[in-house]
Design goal:
The protein has 131 residues and is mainly alpha-helical. 77% of the residues lie in helices and 0% in strands. It has one domain. This is DUF4168 domain-containing protein.
Length: 131
């Protein structure tokens, strides 16, 4: 489910639950939890052994990006808009991890990571232009 659809459904539920604030909170929490589960599922698919981004170090960050891109290339042709949003969320998390290690990364790893980020963006734009 795309974020926009989630928001619309949320507001429909808000209208129904206007007199029930606890129900409203429950609906919002459920939607957020489901979106996080979807992103984590995609994270496991795209990062494989590196799905726990917190455990990635300077010695394997470049390889984690390579695995990510390898899996994106293998899967993206069948992706929905929601799949792309989830993959983008995974890329965002991976990028944040890279930023936290940037100062101690080799120049070579920085270049490899930048290439993966660019390729991901290009595939996403290519797919968006087809629709």
């Amino acid at each position: 489910m795309t974020f926009a659809v989630t928001v619309i459904l949320f507001f429909v539920q808000v209208e129904k639950a206007a007199l029930y604030p606890t129900k409203l909170l429950q609906i919002a929490t459920t939607a957020i939890v489901q979106e996080e589960k979807d992103v984590m599922r995609m994270q496991r698919k795209l990062l494989g052994p590196y799905h726990d981004i917190r455990a990635i170090t300077t010695s394997n960050i470049s390889h984690a990006h390579a695995i990510f891109m390898q899996n994106v290339r293998a899967r993206y042709s069948n992706w929905t808009e929601t799949d792309w949003e989830n993959a983008q969320a995974v890329m965002y998390r991976l990028t944040r991890k890279s930023e936290s290690l940037y100062r101690i990364m080799s120049v070579s790893d920085r270049a490899k990571i930048k290439a993966v980020q660019n390729e991901f963006r290009e595939l996403q734009e290519k797919t968006n232009n087809k629709t």
